[in-house]
Amino acid sequence: MVEKLDCIHESVETPDVYIVERLFSSSLVVVVSIAMPQRMNIYHFKKGTEICNYSYPNNILSVKLNRQRLVVCLEESIYIHNIKDMKLLKTLLNTPSNPSGLCALSINHSHSYLAYPGSATIGEIIVYDANNLNTVTMIPAHDSPVAALTFNASATKLASASERGTVIRVFSVPEGLRLFEFRRGMKRYVSIRSLSFSPDSQFLCASSNTETVHIFKMEQLGHSGEEEHATWTAYMGKMFSAASSYLPAHVSGMMSQDRAFATVHLLLSDQRNVCTLAMIQKLPRLLVATANGQLFIYNVDPVDGGECMLAHKHRLFGSDDDQGEGIESEGSEVTGPAQACPSYAATAALPAAGPVTATLTGYSEDGGAKKGEVIPEHEFAAGPVCLDDENEFPPINWCRDGTGGGPGRRS
What we know:
Layout: E1 17-22, E2 28-33, E3 39-44, E4 49-55, E5 62-65, E6 69-73, E7 77-82, E8 87-93, E9 104-105, E10 113-117, E11 123-129, E12 134-142, E13 146-151, E14 157-162, E15 167-172, E16 178-183, E17 192-197, E18 203-208, E19 212-217, H1 232-243, H2 249-255, E20 257-258, E21 262-265, E22 273-280, E23 283-290, E24 294-299, E25 306-307, E26 309-315, H3 344-348, E27 398-401, E28 408-409
């Protein structure tokens, strides 16, 4: 909902967490702490039990997961695990230096693509098939190093931005053909903080270290060659596209760029943030979470675009004495968690249900499925999985070493 946030889980055991990833709406979370930056812990947070943990030779910079694969990115290597049993399937060694741990994993399990920088000096992108464990293509995306990457929901498009932050490009997957090119700005270089497609892949939002969040619209040519949306921008885009084959690359590239369809102006600039587009209560929304603990929810006009209106503002943590706050409309009051959640220490005391095994049997979807139902086969590549949350995720009493050693027993 727009007006209310529900606290799903709160842990007081590990206050120094710097990476946390949840497998969609399941109870599986991956956690990495500052105290042990080389170790990844996987928990069933509803039970308060640890499923397993892995250690790696260097600090973990990012973790990505979908229903098929779990990917761990270090500065110069990438580890690919089978998420069903956590076996290490592939290690990509000697990858180009990637100090930010930049990578993207598609959420589509049938086409589980992984994208990561192919160079530390120019904007090359490697697209890797994490299911079949082979390289798909290399995309020469930008002149300067890549700073942001994201796939759309169906894994048919890949968006990227470089360290300059002036141009955002969208490529087809797996072909690697350039589909769209959007200009975020021409006056100055910026640091793109996040990119995110809308669920229907019609829009792409981008946030940076400036106060403006941009939303771009991808307008495709119809099957008959006519524009689906007869706008001046679409018409000019068609004309420039037709002429681009006769122009030098740098000229045709400039002419194929488009302006933002919609924008949001944040209260503060130079604040680390992440943005995403989602359907909430049947309406398109833009969500922006900032490093100082705020979540902004904006309404997006999918027809006319323009400046997005703030629908609500939530306080996730911290105090509410930031500059510029408190001047919004009545509908943007700051709220906290809707209810208190038991701590990890409290949930960990609960007895684990089910037998102790050495495999993961699947993940319960908490989003409305009733006990005993099964996830449709298209949700998993290996068939249906029981949604009985009390019998899933038994604690696994083994750990794996990310360097390639065998499992070691824990007492």
